[in-house]
Automatic annotation (TrEMBL):
<dbReference type="GO" id="GO:0005739">
    <property type="term" value="C:mitochondrion"/>
</dbReference>
<dbReference type="GO" id="GO:0046872">
    <property type="term" value="F:metal ion binding"/>
</dbReference>
<feature type="domain" description="Gcp-like">
    <location>
        <begin position="23"/>
        <end position="326"/>
    </location>
</feature>
<keyword id="KW-0012">Acyltransferase</keyword>
<dbReference type="GO" id="GO:0002949">
    <property type="term" value="P:tRNA threonylcarbamoyladenosine modification"/>
</dbReference>
<comment type="function">
    <text>Required for the formation of a threonylcarbamoyl group on adenosine at position 37 (t(6)A37) in mitochondrial tRNAs that read codons beginning with adenine. Probably involved in the transfer of the threonylcarbamoyl moiety of threonylcarbamoyl-AMP (TC-AMP) to the N6 group of A37. Involved in mitochondrial genome maintenance.</text>
</comment>
<comment type="similarity">
    <text>Belongs to the KAE1 / TsaD family.</text>
</comment>
<protein>
    <recommendedName>
        <fullName>Glycoprotease 1</fullName>
    </recommendedName>
</protein>
<dbReference type="GO" id="GO:0061711">
    <property type="term" value="F:tRNA N(6)-L-threonylcarbamoyladenine synthase activity"/>
</dbReference>
<keyword id="KW-0819">tRNA processing</keyword>
<keyword id="KW-0496">Mitochondrion</keyword>
<keyword id="KW-0808">Transferase</keyword>
<comment type="subunit">
    <text>Homodimer.</text>
</comment>
<keyword id="KW-0479">Metal-binding</keyword>
Amino acid sequence: VYILGIETSCDDTAAAVVRGDGKILSEVVSSQAEMLTQYGGVFPKIAEEGHAKAIDKVVSEALFQAGIKESGLSAVAVTIGPGLSLCLRVGVRKARSLTKIHRLPWIGVHHMEGHALVARLTDPQLEFPFLVLLVSGGHNLLLLAQKVGDYIQLGTTLDDAIGEAYDKTARELGLDLSKGGGPALERLALEGDDKAFNFSVPMRSVQDCNFSFAGLKTRVKMLISSQDIKPSIVHIDEANAEDRQIRADIAASFQRVAVLHLEDRCDRAIEWAKSMAPIRSLVVSGGVASNKVVRERLRNLAEKHGLRITCPPPRLCTDNGVMIAWTGVEHFKLGRIQPPPPLDEPDDCYLDLRPRWQLGEIYAGGLRTAR
Ligand code: ATP
Ligand code: FE
């Protein structure tokens, strides 16, 4: 089995070829980090143009590196949601045209299932059922993964995702965003005192597994303006030593509390999950899972509960084509594939994208078992 995976849900254009046994034959990512630096966020129209420019090259490069022709593929897997519909369209259009011309089956993949299942590629000993914490730019999810395609959602974010809070805070602090706000903030936090500022941990009195990062984000923002730092004007490199130290302290304090919130919610989710299924592992994935503090603290938490922990390597935590190709492999093996598009399908007519798409059923027993 050879599956090509295509990912264009946000700002990265990515493709990869993965073999049925999990061997990664190629991986190509073209990112638009300069957009974040220039505009401070992802603008759908601009991202769409970036994808449109990159997609053909990224896909042919992935096939070339893998040494495989389109006709040698078993199927094409592509992210159909959730994400920006303008962006999703570019990848889906490419997948439809490839599968139409070469008469290949195709597989529509849930982006967050990709983030979760890639852990089964990097850790072959990972067995269902397991608990997954997904922390990324757009999501915070706690899922009990029972089988491929069978998830129970224990918690989600009520407002912002943690990655977004990292990115916004990094921007407020005047950090260089060209390699992502999260990694820049993580680096600066190493120079700071994480107890310098005392932000309260979100939702301590709410006994469920949901997340909230908007309040923390706002408190940090208010603190920054009260310190009279004007990071959107002053880049960190222009800050004097004292100013830099304050920013590092804010970064470290923000990170401490953000990760404490993850620990709190995970701690409860582990107990919920254990009451439902014999879980043995905690998977932590999504872009923010490349953060060392996040990995370290959740490792301790998992150990405390007698669980193994699996975090994919950082390049497979952030958006990539491998996770989509691998999720395609998992679905392919179960026969969950779509037939090739009709030969007369116009290239731009496929509309079944899922920009908003919930993964799994929401757990209804939360309140009953709340501590
Ligand atoms: P989603 O998967 O929810 O659709 P996305 O695909 O945009 O969102 P990912 O690529 O999975 O998100 O992750 C990107 C996010 O991860 C960004 O918000 C980025 O700042 C954050 N991130 C990446 N590395 C780190 C790090 N070392 N520390 C903290 N955050 C990080
Ligand atoms: Fe993602």
